[in-house]
Structures
1.
Amino acid sequence: MSQTLRPLTVGELLDRTFSCYRRHFGLFFGIAALPHLLVFAFQVAGMLAVRGAGAFGALIWSFAFVFLYLTTVALSQGATMIAVSEIQLGRGTSIAQAFGRIRPRLGEILVVMLNVGVRVIIGLIMLIVPGVIAVLKYALAVPVAVLEETTVSGALERSATLTKGHRGRIFLIYFLLMVFMWIVAMVWQFPAMVVMAAFFGKVRPDQLPLWGYIFFEFGSVVTQAVVAPIMTIAFALVYYDERVRKEAFDLTQMMQQLDRPATA
């Protein structure tokens, strides 16, 4: 059943986020888990391969890991936003279909994420506040890139327009969700650290035996796969909420927009 597109309060938006996630947990968890498991496998393989490879080998592996991580984040976020849009329309979708829809746009989404990341980092270096402003200003750049298929510069400009006047509201959503996600992450990490301390005493993560490292990291992967979709779902809904508020965006326009790539 399709969702009514109307302006939402912060409470309503968060409620719809968690309701959507709860009703389609398997879909969103699967979309997040597959890329995270790929990164996990690369981490474990890297630990075995880099040992004895020297500083140069470790450096090459580090660059490859960063690239893989960013690519999987872009893939997961994009596929999640596609799934949210399909659910808004009341149409069924699957993990494979969501990944299939986003795959041709993966390069553009990755460039948008890197562009925003560089702007945020520069802003944080400039006394932090400009970085926070950049986060809020470009909070909808990825949803725009995924759902409107714009250029990189177009996605950034469009996000700045959609968020203008509502960045305090977006900050509140960010803050509340970050606190919630941190609490959920601690539910795994604290007990895991207690178990590790009981087995190995006070040792750094890089001093753990391989099985201990795999145990700890696998738990982190599962936790990340559980919490990661929440923020993405929320900002996909924020994107539509801003369009409803500023452009009187309705369900018919949304359906035409999502059908366009499929019929191209």
2.
Amino acid sequence: MKSLRTRINFRNPVVARCYDKNGNLKWTRRCFNGVTDVGIEQLLDAQFNGGSQSSTWYMLLVDNSGFSAFADGDTMGSHSGWTEDQTYAASTRPEWTADAAGSRAVTNSSTVDFAINGTTVIKGIAAVDNNVKGGTSGTLFATASFSSNASVENGDTLKVTYTVSG
């Protein structure tokens, strides 16, 4: 008898598109996330151990300045290789709202938008279950690094799509 094997893919795509103040596409970055140890453990505990589910997720921007690396052991309270970039107008991190699962994936059909209010270089994106901009609590689920610089300036809008598949 042949056994059925299913693998959950934690190398999921993040697509970020930057539009200038006139709505013109400036650049697109596509990268793949890595899921943190605490992210995987939270998912497994919620599904198989009666742990608490995080029902709301948010996206944050990762600053290019001082970036050295993401690590599997990163948490919101401890991530020495990177810092959160807060060069956007909202007072809280924007929510990532996943559509219903289908075809073994969840994604957001409505983009996560960041209204940029300064000039900076973004290194990547992360998903966390806490909306406090610059906050250090909550579960850091995933991080994703762009392969090249992603410069933004005042008036730009960064639109992000994130897919989690298995």
3.
Amino acid sequence: MNRRIAYFTIILLGVLSIFSCNRKTINVIAPNSSTVLNGSAFTYSLPRTVVKFKVTAVRTNVYPGPYAAYAKKFLGIESVFSKRSTSWEIENIKIDAGTESDPNSVFIVESEDQKYINLFELVKTGLIVPFSSTVVNSTTTVNVKPSQAFESVWSDLSATPFMAEEKDVLYTKVLRDSTYVRVPVQKSVVVAKSFEEKAQEAADFIFSLRKHRMEFLTTDTDNPIDGLAVKESLQEIAKLESEYLSLFIGKTVSDTVAREFEYIPKGETNETAIVFRFSESKGLLPMSDLSGSPVVLEFKVEDSNNAETAFLNSAANKNFKKISWIYYRIPRTCQVSLLFNNEELAKRRLPIYQFGEMVQIPTKFFEKGK
């Protein structure tokens, strides 16, 4: 009887030894310069968050009128633009976030048989990403319209030519009775009108338009004009008056400029950074341009409840030795704010991976049939 028990024990230990030797193992390591990959290795990285800012600013160009010096003399207008200027104002800021692979958090999953690795379910959740540069989705675009040339702001300066014809009297000598006599001769001479003369003509045209407008509004009721025709005529008169009036008071032209900026958080406590700079005279500027004031990015990690903190502390593991755990990162919700001169321009709540804890899950959950 004892022999049978001993014999059966030997057979059982042998079977367990065989199964133990044939068991497929999965190991996870953090690579270094000497790491050599085997044929069944799978490389993945943890995700990191890229915070993106789309900033829209309005650029306003002020052009003084060419007849600004004569505005008071001919029109009685005193407050007019006397010099060209450009001013900027931030109109809108949109805060968004993207995800890319973190080159500082790369892991290698090794298995004796690659069919035992089934990490793609975890990839689908976004908790880990395949380590590849194609995962990076980062673009920076600039949409800046060129400033309008000063000379092209006004296309119509006057309703009359700049050249005028004048009659001039010239004297010539004519031989009469063997004596030269001085005789007057009229001759037409083309001369350019002075700037003041052109300004006066423009002012006279403005008053002429206003006179015609009054005629439309006080028309004889015995010969009424169709209402739609009056409306269109008055609109055209107002348009012409505005164009000619701008020759004296100047023009204001505005356009929109949009730029995109990005920042990759480091995950530091009370992290702040300069994303871009802004100047009321130069507009949106890169971080390196010190002529503008800084626009500061600020991160505030929201406080976790006690249960969540206890879970993260117990699940966190900074030991990257060769053990059978899959590492991933849980993002933390942050208040992302943009500040300019201590004034908040924009704010949004975003999940940021870099502020989250490193956690782990046993590799056996990814083995075939688990």
